[in-house]
Design a protein that fits this description.
single chain, 24 helices, mainly alpha, 3 domains, globular
Length: 529
């Protein structure tokens, strides 16, 4: 009876995974992402809940908050059109799914150590690849493919199908060699393959292979979540048995922290004197304020990230024997963190000056938000150093989720157009060529900007002018192509976007439903249609 139960459990899980594999083919194959990701996530979570109740497996309620960001990022794929943002959304969904299945019935996620949190998605992916194999073995255990005494076509057809499947790759291999050896045979073989509609057959085989791969991965995820020994617990246990590669004495670590603190303190002193002190102080040093302020933010962010890694590493490797040593380490670590936060404030200030001078771009906006959330993480680290030891990992997860969620809520392309148009109203400077690179999220704002650019006769050397120069076109054609005003550049770009949406109907499929694309098409049609 126990063997039957194990076999029945494995079969049910594999059939559920196979149904999800077919649903993935329906939702994703040959289609752009849209509402399909949300639907697949809902199906996966529903299947997980159904199987857990069937097996009377209790879900840890303290981990239920994972569902909210998981669904949020899946929804945003159907709301935003920005490619970079949607890559982040898909990655966030995948990582959160890994945490969901790995901690489905184990302890609270906020109790995980940093090493476990960082390695858990990769560990869950590795276990997901090998977990379906025992399920297949359990499902097939005791089944007879050729029962004794059976008659009819089954004993003949089943081995015949298996033999044919094994022969297919050999046939293809030898057919290619023979076709290369004889041109007439190659022509005849090509004719036969055309009649057999080989392209359609290969497409079906490929789709079947994709279904099998997705089903295998889904089965692995379900198996991990429904396992009595959770992946997070297993990884935590394995990592706890690892010894430190080496340890540092308290004197060595203190020396490192003191020297770096002195270096950072001297740098911060210069920031207060020159960067935050105003333009007059910088000019006394022989530089213009623009030269001094509009650089260094990437370097300062890099310093902050490396410094955080350094403090975490020293906290792990340093051997502290007394309470006074522990207290001194906390003081030096906190001081270093505070100095790094001041340096991040300098980087943020420099970036804001750079954006004011040259306008917003997606990279500059992303770096600005990253600085804010990195400073938040540093503040959380100080809290864990003094009051909540062992809770840094959950803060890191929250910061990562908050960073991507903030980008989604801010809607980068819309924010960039609004800020650059505000700068245009103040200074008359606007990089319309960059606006063309923004996704269709920006279409409503770009349409609104046309009225503000009315009457602006500024022209410039637009990128497509280089094409005419290379073709050695007559001067009058070059001038005619180049002499476009800002409003003409934006208008032509919007018309091209409408033409692209009309030509490419893939976004109209229900699986690819995207609110941003639908709104852009409606607004562009009302304007130019």
């Amino acid at each position: 009876m126990k063997a039957f139960t194990v076999q029945n459990r494995a079969t049910t899980l594999l059939l559920t995974a196979l149904l999800l594999g077919f649903s993935a083919d329906l939702l994703f194959y040959g289609k752009r992402l849209g509402i399909s990701l949300l639907l697949f996530v809902l199906l996966f979570v529903a299947a997980l809940i159904y199987l857990s109740r069937r097996e009377r497996l209790v879900y840890v309620r303290q981990n239920g908050w994972l569902i909210l960001p998981l669904l949020f990022f899946a929804v945003m794929v159907a709301v935003r059109a920005n490619p970079f943002l949607n890559v982040l959304n898909v990655l966030a969904v995948m990582v959160l799914l890994a945490f969901l299945v790995a901690n489905f019935s184990s302890g609270p996620i906020h109790e995980l150590r940093l090493s476990t949190t960082l390695l858990l998605p990769l560990y869950a992916a590795g276990r997901g690849l090998i977990s379906p194999a025992p399920l297949v073995a359990d499902s097939l255990k005791g089944r007879r493919f050729r029962p004794e005494g059976s008659s009819g076509l089954v004993p003949v057809v089943v081995p015949l199908v298996r033999g044919g499947a094994l022969a297919v790759p050999l046939l293809l291999f030898f057919a290619l060699l023979l076709a290369s050896a004889d041109l007439i045979f190659a022509d005849q073989l090509a004719g036969v393959l055309r009649l057999a509609r080989l392209a359609d057959l290969l497409r079906l085989v490929w789709r079947g292979l994709v279904i099998v791969i997705v089903s295998w991965l889904v089965a692995g995820g379900l198996a991990i979540a429904l396992s009595r020994r959770q992946a997070a617990d297993a990884l935590e246990e394995n990592l706890s048995q690892l010894r430190r590669p080496f340890s540092l004495g308290f004197v060595e670590s203190t020396t490192i922290l003191v020297l770096i603190n002195l270096l950072f303190l001297s740098f911060v002193t210069f920031q207060f004197r020159y960067l935050f002190g105003g333009e007059a102080q910088v000019q006394l040093a022989g530089y213009t304020y623009a030269e001094y302020a509009r650089r260094g933010f990437f370097e300062l962010v890099t310093v902050a990230v490396i410094s955080l890694a350094l403090i975490l590493g020293l906290n792990w490797l340093t051997w502290r024997e007394t309470k006074s040593q522990l207290r001194l380490f906390k003081i030096l670590g906190s001081l270093l963190t505070l100095l790094v936060m001041i340096m991040l404030a300098s980087a943020f200030y420099r970036m804001r000056l750079y954006e004011a001078a040259f306008g917003y771009t997606e990279l500059r906006l992303t770096v600005t938000l990253f600085i804010v959330w990195l400073a938040t993480l540093l503040g959380w680290f100080i809290g864990t150093l003094w009051r909540w030891p062992g809770r840094f990992a959950i803060g890191l997860m929250a910061v990562c989720i908050g960073f991507v969620a903030t980008l989604n809520m801010l809607n980068p392309d819309v924010f960039i157009v609004r800020q650059n148009m505000a700068r245009y109203r103040a200074s008359g400077d606007l990089d319309v060529i960059y606006l063309e690179t923004l996704s269709d999220d920006a279409v409503p704002e770009l349409l609104g900007s046309l009225a503000e650019m009315e009457g602006d006769g500024t022209t410039g050397l637009w990128p497509w002018c280089e094409y005419y120069r290379e073709e050695e076109s007559p001067l009058e054609e070059i001038v005619e192509a180049c002499e476009l005003t800002r409003i003409e550049v934006v208008g032509e770009d919007l018309k091209q976007r409408l033409e692209t949406l009309e030509t490419d109907s893939g976004w109209r499929r229900w699986q690819s439903t995207n609110l941003s694309l639908q709104r852009s098409h409606r607004l562009l049609t009302e304007k130019f249609g």
